């Protein structure tokens, strides 16, 4: 039996966000850019046994007033210390790292790390942050950046998502240790597992609608109605993304793509997805053009280092800040056309 087409409203919502899966990094890897070239080994783990009311926390502070994407924003995330003055490697600390990493592609890795250091040092007197604790936080930051960089490389090179996720999970615990990896990634990994299970149920054409609904209800028994709706849309999105990847691999023509999408999602959603196909093709053309121009600049032996850097920076001006971060990640991981 052909799966019932989703509603027009849901289909349009799906079409509107499927492009994020094409243009962004894998959702289970996070969306923040990767900037450090530091390769970090296993990181020591802090004791997180102190109660919440025994912790001190850095308050939010305005970001740098320089011209960048964080101008006029407040710092997201915070560093907490336990009763012994040791930094707590919780999810809020990872949010703090991500906040400063949002400048990737706009500032150098060294400048981003220095900005984080300046923020921490500015709050050190009030917080009682000792030098050894500060060094621990910076070591975690370096390890996190290197880990996220290498995780993106795995996701870009591994054709099977499940295999990529397994490799990334193992890498997280190898680099960070079990306790720190769980603190930063456990909820994200649980969400991935649930979404993956939902995706498989939606993609299983052998299930009739009643059986699929029953299994989905069992999977989501611990969720409230709003969470269940979000999970359902996420699973449908995953199916649409997988279908689009298959279309790309098989070089499926536009007419066949439209017909198959219309059968699953309805006419309006299929039309929106066709438009996104065109936008993706345009993006790929822009990246190919950038890569070719970049290669010519690198090969020009008459340029000084300063001139070469100036021209490379000029090439990036054709992209908006989010696009620059993605192009920067492609470049660092050797994923540009011709690299």
Question: In a nutshell, what does this entry contain?
Answer:
The protein has 339 residues and is mostly helical. It has helices at 8-23, 91-101, 109-127, 131-157, 161-176, 178-203, 209-219, 225-250, 254-265, 267-299, 305-316, 321-332, and strands at 56-57, 80-81. The chain is built from twelve helices and two strands; from the N terminus they run αββααααααααααα.
Structural class: mainly alpha
Unreliable stretches, pLDDT < 50, 5 or more residues? Answer: 1-67
Question: How are helices and strands ordered from N to C?
Answer: HEEHHHHHHHHHHH
The shape, in one word, is flat
Walk across the major sheet and give the strand order: 1-2
β-strand amount = under 5%
- Tell how many strands the DSSP assignment holds: 2
Largest sheet: 2 strands, antiparallel
Radius of gyration: 23 Å
The pLDDT mean sits at 78
Helix proportion range: 55-70%
Number of helices: 12
**Ends: how far apart?**
46 Å
Written account of the structure:
The protein has a domain at about 30-155. The protein has about 350 residues and is mainly alpha-helical. The chain contains 12 helices and 2 strands, in the order αββααααααααααα. It has helices spanning about 10-25, 90-100, 110-125, 130-155, 160-175, 180-205, 210-220, 225-250, 255-265, 265-300, 305-315, 320-330; strands at about 55, 80. Helices cover about 65% and strands about 0% of the residues. A two-stranded antiparallel sheet has the order 1-2.
């Amino acid at each position: 039996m052909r799966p019932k087409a989703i509603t027009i409203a849901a289909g349009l919502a799906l079409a509107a966000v499927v492009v994020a899966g094409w243009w962004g990094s894998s959702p289970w890897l996070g969306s923040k850019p990767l900037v450090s070239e530091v390769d970090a080994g296993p990181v020591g783990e802090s004791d997180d046994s102190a109660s919440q009311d025994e912790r001190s926390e850095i308050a939010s502070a305005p970001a740098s007033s320089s011209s960048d994407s964080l101008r006029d924003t407040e710092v997201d995330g915070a560093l907490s210390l336990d009763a012994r003055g040791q930094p707590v490697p919780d999810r809020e600390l990872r949010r703090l790292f991500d906040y400063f990493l949002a400048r990737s592609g706009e500032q150098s890795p060294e400048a981003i790390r220095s900005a984080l250091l300046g923020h921490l040092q500015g709050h050190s007197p009030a917080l009682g942050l000792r030098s050894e604790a500060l060094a621990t936080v910076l070591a975690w930051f370096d390890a996190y950046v290197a880990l996220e960089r290498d995780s993106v490389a795995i996701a870009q090179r591994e054709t099977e998502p499940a295999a990529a996720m397994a490799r990334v999970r193992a890498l997280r615990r190898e680099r960070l240790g079990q306790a720190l990896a769980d603190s930063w990634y456990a909820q994200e990994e649980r969400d991935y597992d649930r979404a993956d299970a939902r995706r498989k149920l939606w993609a299983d054409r052998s299930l009739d609608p009643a059986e699929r609904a029953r299994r989905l209800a069992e999977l989501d028994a611990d969720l409230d109605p709003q969470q269940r709706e979000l999970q359902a849309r996420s699973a449908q999105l995953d199916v649409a993304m997988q279908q689009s990847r298959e279309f790309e691999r098989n070089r499926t023509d536009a007419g066949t793509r439209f017909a198959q999408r219309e059968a699953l999602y309805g006419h309006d959603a299929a039309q929106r997805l066709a438009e996104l196909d065109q936008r993706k093709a345009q993006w790929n053309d822009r990246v190919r053009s950038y890569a070719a121009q970049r290669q010519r600049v690198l090969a020009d032996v008459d340029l000084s280092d300063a001139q070469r850097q100036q021209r490379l920076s000029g090439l990036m001006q054709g992209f908006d800040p989010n696009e620059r971060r993605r192009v920067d990640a492609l470049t660092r991981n050797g994923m540009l056309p011709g690299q």
